[in-house]
Design goal:
homodimer, 109 residues, alpha+beta, Arc Repressor Mutant, subunit A, 3 strands, DNA-binding
DNA sequence: GCGATACTGAACCGATAGGTTCAGTATCGT
DNA sequence: ACGATACTGAACCTATCGGTTCAGTATCGC
């Protein structure tokens, strides 16, 4: 089973796809518009878009022959939530470090 | 140039590696210990560990023949920070949605 | 209707990712 | 000193990824 989180993490692990996302953050755009700044074939960009769609990070609405893409970044929240499970852990690490310094301060060499 | 963020995102995009991370969140462990639950060769796990090290998500300390791994999840903060640049965006989306419903309510069909 | 535009699908390609096995090195326990 | 343990490196294999080209379909503007 390939989870939802997996699709999202795979999607954002590629720099070209992150670049597409940042373009779409400035507003909806057609595939051709998105592709323009890249020195890459339209077909190549199309494939990346498909992967972003699979991760639900991008939605497409057809208007005639045009495919307008817009960013739907909500799935990133799943990633953020996954990360917070480690936040607790690194806070504990900081706490231990703090304890260490307090102990050191109270009982100096 | 391959950024730091890229290493981290690539590292966490694999389920096996996330699984290793969650194991190490329960405490430091040797590579063999980490490998034990997996139906995978030790060599395979070693490779994954290397990728996690490259992303600075795991640190290794040798004690004789043993390699003790412990989690250093701080680089995940870079990912969290990257995500927050889209948080603003999805809040605006929610605002627009809210505006839409308010407008709808005030001027019904 | 016709040519330009906006994609899409299929076939292909090289590189890399994820895995294996096997042979080697270093260290530990006895 | 010797066998078991804990890895590591190299070679290899397969599938997938990121990219291409080319040919096709649908739609638009005129």
């Amino acid at each position: 089973m390939v989870s939802k989180l997996d699709n999202v993490l795979v999607a954002i692990s590629d720099p070209t796809r992150r670049s597409i996302m940042s373009r779409l953050a400035r507003g909806p755009a057609r595939i051709s518009d998105v592709a323009a700044p890249f020195s890459m074939s339209l077909t190549g960009v199309c494939k990346h878009v498909r992967i972003l769609e699979k991760a639900a990070l991008v939605r497409r609405t057809r208007h005639g022959r045009e495919n307008v893409l817009h960013l739907t970044p909500e799935p990133l929240r799943d990633v953020a939530r996954w990360i917070t499970t480690y936040e607790r852990f690194w806070n504990e690490r900081l706490d231990r470090l703090e304890d260490f310094f307090i102990a050191k301060k109270e009982r100096p060499k």
